[in-house]
Amino acid sequence: MVAGFCSLAAAELVSALVRPEAGPVTAVGGAVIDRSPAALKEFAVRHFGTGDKLALELGIVVLLAVFAMAVGVLALHHRRTGSAAVLLFGAVGAVAAVGRPEGSAPDALPSVVGAAVGAGVLFALTGRLTTAPPRPPASGSESESESGEAYRAFDRRGFVITAAVATAVSAGAGLLGRRLTSSVQAGATASRHDLVLPVPDSPAPAVPAGTGLNIRGLSPFFTPNKDFYRVDTALVVPRLDAAGWRLRIHGEGVARPLTVGLHDLLRREIIERDITLACVSNEVGGPYIGNARWLGVRLADLLREAGVRPPSAGGPADQLVARSVDGMTIGTPVEAVMDGRDAMLALGMNGEPLPFAHGFPVRMVVPGLYGYVSACKWIEDIELTTFDAYDAYWVRRSWAQQAPVKTESRIDTPRSLASPKPGTVPVAGVAWAQHRGISRVEVRVDGGEWHTARLSAADNRDTWRQWVWEWPATSGRHTLEVRATDGTGATQTGRRADTVPDGATGLHSVVVDVS
């Protein structure tokens, strides 16, 4: 265990000099995420929510602890073999780090150095356990077979001193690594703090009165940044310095490739829009949806400047592949980005620069599409290609190439298994069908007739909409269900389907005991 701690601490220090994402726990965790089947990912999101990454890292640390103890037992009997096993595990971390989409040869260093340190510490500690020659038998006492066996002498003092020194030095190395990482990231933090968002050239219309229904337990119309859902594969949130950020636009049908920085974007026309984002991993009635006011630059304007034409205008590319600094790839239909909707490269979120966890300094936002086919965070590259030629990250893992947001609704209050009193009970929630809007919401009790709910005022067709139905509740256990109808007249289906491959369907329901 001491050798394992020393190994991780040394790797922490070296990863601070290379890049934090190259650390062995992060690298192995990333490799596990990349190679996990869609069903396992959905299980993690369903049961751990946005804490799925922490659960994965804790799981890796537990496995490392078990491995360390097993290697320790091996080293007691085979000193060199035990130390060599640590080097083998270091090789696994090195391969995982270099094999990441954004990996390079230097990324192997943290795992290699950490393994070398761990092997050395293990070898030194087991050296304090020595096998002495057989004791001569004492006359008239024990038999030669009993007293002549080899025995193990424990150099307690030497072991404790060696372990204490190794632990102290490693702890210092780990703390130094954390300090170096923090100092490197301080520039990114300062660049976000210093970024002054411009006044939009095209501001969002004022939110109509009555958009928020002000009902206890109902989700607010705008989701605070700290509460906005986060579902991605980044075990370490990238922290980019705004001054060094660049975006490259190139590929098929790009007549004039572009490379732009943040200040280039700030000099362009800035738009401000209210847009609701939803994750395809959101189960019926799930929490992975949020509404925000976004500030940014129209992506279609940049594409036109690069000479890109949508397929409807004869353009050869039908897919825009956005790449993140952490290697994520997201494929978006070119037609959707250029059809007039407010697809943007977002710089701001709810009146402040993007939080690091939500893509600072720049991310994509495309109304009407699930995030896995539109919402690339920490974006650094846009390549124009075709869906036939390239499958993005999630498509290679059983998800659909294209995924418009489905018409959905959710009951926020009363909560499932709540116990309201008989009488008038407000049943309220949210409904969404981005880029189509919501025209009607209905609620029913115990499978009976549908009752039309009262809708809040509509902001725009790209945001969710609150609703409420005043239920004359009677005593007993009841099941409440909700369904929505979008702006095209299509009503939400009651057919149950899983999130894979293009989003869950079905009606959200809650069971309450009125008493």
Query: What's the Cα radius of gyration?
Result: 29 Å
Strand order of the largest sheet: 4-3-12-7-8
Instruction: Indicate the low-confidence ranges by residue numbers.
Output: 140-151
Report the end-to-end length measured between terminal Cα atoms: 56 Å
How many strands in all? Answer: 20
- What share of the residues lie within helices? 25-40%
Please count the helical segments: 11
Mean pLDDT equals: 92
Net shape:
globular
Proportion of beta-strand residues: 15-25%
Sheet/helix structural class: alpha+beta
Note the main sheet. Answer: 5 strands, mixed
Question: Could you walk me through the main structural features you see in this protein, from its secondary elements to its overall organization?
Answer:
With 515 residues, the chain is an alpha+beta fold. The chain has eleven helices and 20 strands. It has helices at residues 2-18, 24-35, 38-48, 52-77, 79-98, 109-126, 144-147, 156-194, 262-266, 299-305, 334-337, and strands at 129-132, 151-154, 246-251, 258-261, 271-278, 289-298, 319-324, 329-333, 344-349, 352-353, 363-365, 379-385, 408-413, 423-432, 438-445, 451-452, 454-455, 465-473, 476-486, 508-514. The strands form five sheets. The chain has a five-stranded mixed beta sheet. A hairpin with a 4-residue loop joins strand 7 and strand 8 (329-333). Helix 1 (2-18) runs parallel beside helix 8, helix 2 crosses helix 4 and helix 5 packs antiparallel against helix 6 (109-126). The longest helix has 39 residues, at 156-194. The protein starts with a helix and ends with a strand.
